[in-house]
C-alpha cells in the first residue's frame, strides 16, 4: 500500500504523512476519545502514587463520617477489639481535568493507581487497614472520596477493680502520618456508634475529642453487664456461705455437721479452680473479687475448724488431745461381776465398789452434760458472730464493688501528654 501511495505525487508529502500516521495509530485518535473510560485511563497513566506536595508540605484529609463499633473486650489480656469505618476526602490538584474537554464531573479510578491516606491507631497492638472497594471516586476539581475499614486491638487497661460491676473509659487514638510539619493533617467530622452491645460489655457513649491538631481520639465509655458474671461468680459464693451458716443447725454429735462443712470447703476450692480462667487478668486495679473469694474460703475453713473443735470439747472437754485428763479408774468399768459373798466384811467391800462405780458413772454423765452445754454455748456465740460478720462483710463488699473508683492513666502511650 505504501508503494501505491508513492505512485500519486499529486497528494503531496504532507497528506501522505498524515495518512501514514492514521494507519500507524498516531496521536490524533487519542485526542478524539472523549469517553469517561478514556479519561480514567489518561489519569491512571499519570501514575501519581506519591502524596500531593503542596507549598506548606501538608495534605489536608477530611473525614466527614466515622463509624465506631466495639467488637469485644478481652478482660484476660485487657484488650479492646474495635472496628472503624471512615469516609476519606482529600484533593490532588494534579488530577484535575477541564470539563469543557471532558464533559464529566466525576470518574472512577482504581485505589492502587493513586495515592490514598492511611489512618493509624496510636495505642493499638495490632491493626488491619482494608479498603471497602477496589475503586474510588474522583471529581473534576481533583477531590477524591474513598471509604476504609480499620480493625484494631487497642491496648486498654480497663478498670477491673469493680468486676463484675466494672465501668471505665478507653481512648482510641486516631492520627495520620506527619513528621516535622510534612505529611497529612486529619480533620474528623461526625462520629457514630454502631451496635454497641457485644457479650458482657456494652458501649454507652463514644465521644470524639482532640488534644492537639494532630492528636484525635475517641473516648469510649464501656460498662459491663453484671447479670451473667454475678450469676456465675458472686451468687455461688453467697449461697455456699449461706449453706455453711445454716449447717450450724446440725448437731455436734454424730459427725454429720463436720462432714458437711468439709464437703463445702472442698466444693468451694473446686469452684475456684474452675473459675480461675474466667477471672480478669491483673492490672493497676486488680479485681477485688479475687480477695472476696479468698475471704470466703477463709470463712469456710474457720467455720469447719470451729465445728471440729467444738465436737472435741463436747466429748471430753479438752481442745487438744494431748491435754486429755486421766480418767477415773471406775469410769472404764462397764460391768459388775457377780460373786458369791462369804461374810459381812466382803459384802461391805463389794457394796462400796458398786457405790463407787455408780457415783463415777453419775459424775461422768454430769461432766459430759457440762461439756456439751459448754460446747453448745460456744457454738451458739460463734454462730451469731459468724452470721453477723458474714452479713456485714457481704454488704461492705457489694458496696465497694459498686461504688469504689480506681483511677488509671489511659494516656500513657502519649509520653508527652502532660507536657
UniProtKB/TrEMBL annotation:
InterPro entries, alphabetized:
Neur_chan_lig-bd, Neur_chan_lig-bd_sf, Neur_channel, Neuro-gated_channel_TM_sf, Neuro_actylchol_rec, Neurotrans-gated_channel_TM
Where is the protein situated, by its record's location annotation? Membrane
Alphabetized UniProt keyword annotations:
Membrane, Transmembrane, Transmembrane helix
What's a single GO CC term here? Answer: membrane
Q: Domain Neurotransmitter-gated ion-channel transmembrane: where?
A: 234-313
Q: Which residues form the Neurotransmitter-gated ion-channel ligand-binding domain?
A: 40-187
Q: Which residues cross the membrane?
A: 230-252, 258-275, 287-305, 381-402
Subcellular location, principal? membrane
**Gene3D superfamilies assigned:** Neurotransmitter-gated ion-channel ligand-binding domain, Neurotransmitter-gated ion-channel transmembrane domain
Q: Give the molecular function GO annotations.
A: extracellular ligand-gated monoatomic ion channel activity; transmembrane signaling receptor activity
Membrane topology per the entry is: Multi-pass membrane protein
- Name of protein: 5-hydroxytryptamine receptor 3A-like
- Species of origin reads Betta splendens (Siamese fighting fish)
Amino acid at each position: 500500500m505504501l508503494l501505491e501511495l508513492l505512485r500519486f505525487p499529486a497528494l503531496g508529502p504532507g497528506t501522505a504523512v498524515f495518512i501514514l500516521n492514521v494507519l500507524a495509530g498516531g496521536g490524533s485518535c487519542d485526542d478524539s476519545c472523549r469517553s469517561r473510560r478514556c479519561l480514567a485511563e489518561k489519569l491512571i497513566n499519570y501514575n501519581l502514587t506519591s502524596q500531593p506536595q503542596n507549598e506548606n508540605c501538608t495534605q489536608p484529609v477530611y473525614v466527614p463520617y466515622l463509624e465506631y463499633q466495639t467488637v469485644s473486650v478481652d478482660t484476660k489480656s485487657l484488650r479492646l477489639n474495635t472496628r472503624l469505618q471512615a469516609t476519606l476526602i482529600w484533593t490532588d490538584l494534579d488530577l484535575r481535568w477541564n470539563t469543557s474537554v471532558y464533559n464529566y464531573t466525576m470518574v472512577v479510578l482504581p485505589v492502587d493507581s493513586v495515592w490514598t491516606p492511611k489512618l493509624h491507631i496510636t495505642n493499638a497492638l495490632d491493626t488491619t487497614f482494608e479498603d471497602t472497594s477496589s475503586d474510588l471516586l474522583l471529581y473534576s476539581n481533583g477531590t477524591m472520596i474513598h471509604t476504609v475499614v480499620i480493625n484494631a486491638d487497642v491496648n486498654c487497661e480497663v478498670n477491673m477493680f469493680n468486676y463484675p460491676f466494672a465501668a471505665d473509659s478507653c481512648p482510641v487514638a486516631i492520627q495520620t502520618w506527619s513528621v516535622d510539619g510534612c505529611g497529612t493533617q486529619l480533620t474528623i467530622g461526625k462520629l457514630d456508634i454502631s451496635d454497641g452491645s457485644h457479650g458482657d460489655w456494652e458501649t454507652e457513649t463514644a465521644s470524639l475529642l482532640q488534644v492537639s491538631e494532630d492528636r484525635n481520639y475517641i473516648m469510649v465509655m464501656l460498662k459491663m453487664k453484671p447479670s451473667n458474671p454475678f450469676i456465675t461468680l458472686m451468687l455461688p459464693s453467697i449461697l455456699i456461705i449461706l449453706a455453711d451458716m445454716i449447717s450450724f443447725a446440725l448437731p455436734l454429735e454424730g459427725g454429720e455437721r463436720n462432714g458437711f462443712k468439709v464437703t463445702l470447703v472442698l466444693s468451694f476450692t473446686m469452684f475456684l479452680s474452675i473459675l480461675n480462667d474466667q477471672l480478669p487478668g491483673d492490672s493497676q486495679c486488680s479485681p477485688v473479687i479475687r480477695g472476696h473469694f479468698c475471704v470466703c474460703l477463709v470463712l469456710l475453713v474457720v467455720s469447719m475448724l470451729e465445728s471440729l473443735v467444738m465436737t472435741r470439747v463436747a466429748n471430753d472437754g479438752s481442745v487438744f488431745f494431748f491435754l486429755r485428763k486421766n480418767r477415773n479408774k471406775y469410769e472404764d468399768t462397764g460391768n459388775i461381776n457377780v460373786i458369791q459373798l462369804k461374810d459381812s466384811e466382803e459384802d461391805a467391800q463389794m457394796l462400796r465398789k458398786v457405790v463407787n462405780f455408780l457415783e463415777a458413772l453419775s459424775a461422768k454423765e454430769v461432766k459430759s452434760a457440762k461439756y456439751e452445754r459448754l460446747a453448745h454455748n460456744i457454738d451458739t456465740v460463734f454462730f451469731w458472730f459468724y452470721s453477723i460478720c458474714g452479713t456485714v462483710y457481704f454488704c461492705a463488699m457489694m458496696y465497694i464493688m459498686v461504688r469504689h473508683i480506681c483511677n488509671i492513666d489511659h494516656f500513657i502511650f502519649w509520653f508527652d501528654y502532660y507536657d
